[in-house]
Design a protein that fits this description.
single chain; 92 residues; globular; mainly alpha; 4 helices
Length: 92
């Protein structure tokens, strides 16, 4: 299902592992943007980085999985836009 929803990632063979560390991806975004990385990094705080709110009851595994997927999608979308912009600027 994840491969169907994110077809662009198939080209990168990104999903050959059994896990995707979304928390580390968000921490890297913080570092890249010059933000502080001290303190607690929770799913809720990761979502807030992308102006999103946690949906559903906390500590329910299916709700956590859903929100983690939303966060992952936001990280991917943001970086796709960055890549497209860099590609366009390189062509000038």
């Amino acid at each position: 299902l994840l491969r169907e929803q994110l077809p662009k990632l198939d080209k990168l063979n990104f999903l050959s592992r059994r896990f995707i560390d979304v928390k580390s991806m968000c921490m890297l975004e913080r570092v890249y943007e010059g933000r502080a990385i001290s303190g607690k990094m929770s799913l809720r705080s990761g979502l807030s980085m992308y102006d999103m709110h946690f949906e559903g009851a906390a500590h329910d595994s299916s709700v956590d999985a859903y929100n983690t997927m939303r966060l992952f999608r936001a990280v991917v979308d943001k970086n796709i836009k960055k890549h497209q912009l860099i590609t366009q600027l390189a062509g000038l």
